[in-house]
Amino acid sequence: MSTQKPQVSPTHIDPFLPYLADLPLRDQREMMERPFFSLAKSKRTKPIDYRSPDGKQWVHVSPNPDYGMATIWDADILMYCISILADMARRGINDIPRKLNLMPYDLLRAIGRPTTGRSYELLGQALDRLVSTTIKTNIRAQNRREATFSWLDGWSQLVDDRTERVRGMTIELSNWLYEGVLMTGGVLSVDRAYFDISGGRERWLYKVARKHAGGAGEAGFAISMPTLFEKSGAEGLYRRFKFEISKLVERNELPGYSLTLETVASKREPIVRMHRIIPPTTRTLSEPSSTTRIKQKTIDTNTSTTRDVTATTFSILRSEFPGWDFETLHQEFRSWIDADPSRTPANYQQAFIGFVRRYDAKNKHILGR
């Protein structure tokens, strides 16, 4: 009696695609300051027309009348893909794919979204906007006058022929985006707390700060409010934009960056100055009592994979998030990891710092900070 071998689909989920919590989060450099996305959650059908102050670079974004324009929240999906490609490049993988096979559940978890039925529906709508939004620009058009593309060349669900159950999805990046990720210096690291930022303008402002103030030194980066308005591509009047940005500067809650509003005697409009906040990593702290369960070792946070909290990590946490019982938080963190082996991070120190950062963001009102 012959045995029929099971059919194997030619398109399969790569079991070795890393979960994003194990990866440094990345974004494409050229996408971080130009007005490529709608900053509002409501459907936008008005195009974006932008030209740089020197007139050398321009961007035109056309929304689809049925789907609307891709939003800055839709761009989280691109950041997920960018981070995976950047990690492949870092590890020296040959033939990095432009089409990725992913599990929607992992994608939603990685970008901080719930995994309810409604979330999968919204994910499909976001992917449709990324496919249908058309961008024309001379940025990195090389020998051409312009490049025309959509963020994604397509996406589809992978369905098991026998059970008709969804097994995953494929996402194909545009060539413009793909080349931008893999070119030298094409990506920048992004704080994972970015996904906790709720406002569209605040999200965009973080990207501008990361792009320009990340390596600007002590002086930081300064930009006039009208220029910031033009760069945002935001709908509405300038005075409304100025009011909202001033409120964001007043709250000063961007992860990793400090904002100030300055007035210049010779100019009518204010400027926004952005400084990178560099946490102390070498400050000497007194050793904790012998009863603490957080064992400290002098191990760099970028290389440590131990399940103990290092002295450097302990120093960062006490400096950035004073007032919390890090022993208790560490126990909660370990319990969370032990509940699901797939949660085991590649970098234990960075993962714990991120855990405390998210806990602090949600609960800092308890401490009155």
Protein described:
With 369 residues, the protein is an alpha+beta fold. It folds into three domains: 20-190, no CATH class; 196-276, Arc Repressor Mutant, subunit A, CATH 1.10.10; 282-369, no CATH class. The protein is 33% helix and 16% strand. The chain has ten helices and twelve strands. It has helices spanning 75-90, 104-110, 117-132, 175-182, 200-213, 225-232, 238-251, 311-320, 326-338, 348-363; strands at 26-28, 48-51, 58-62, 99-102, 134-137, 147-149, 152-159, 166-173, 187-189, 221-224, 257-262, 271-276. The strands form four sheets. A four-stranded antiparallel β-sheet has the order 2-3-5-6, with no helix packed on it. It has a three-stranded antiparallel β-sheet with strand order 4-8-7. A three-stranded antiparallel β-sheet has the order 10-12-11. Strand 7 and strand 8 (166-173) form a beta hairpin. The longest helix is centred in the first third of the chain and has 16 residues, at 75-90.
Give a quick set of tags describing it.
Arc Repressor Mutant, subunit A; about 15% strand; alpha+beta; 3 domains; about 375 residues
Computed over alpha carbons, the radius of gyration is 22 Å
Span from first to last CA?
Answer: 74 Å
Net shape: globular
Q: How many strands in all?
A: 12
Our estimate of the beta-strand percent is 15-25%
Low-confidence stretches: 1-16, 281-305
From N to C, what is the helix and strand string?
EEEHEHHEEEEHEHEHHEEHHH
Q: Tell me the structural class.
A: alpha+beta
Mean pLDDT across the residues is 82
Number of helices: 10
Biggest sheet record: 4 strands, antiparallel
Protein name: Plasmid replication initiator protein
Pfam families: RPA (PF10134)
Keywords: Plasmid
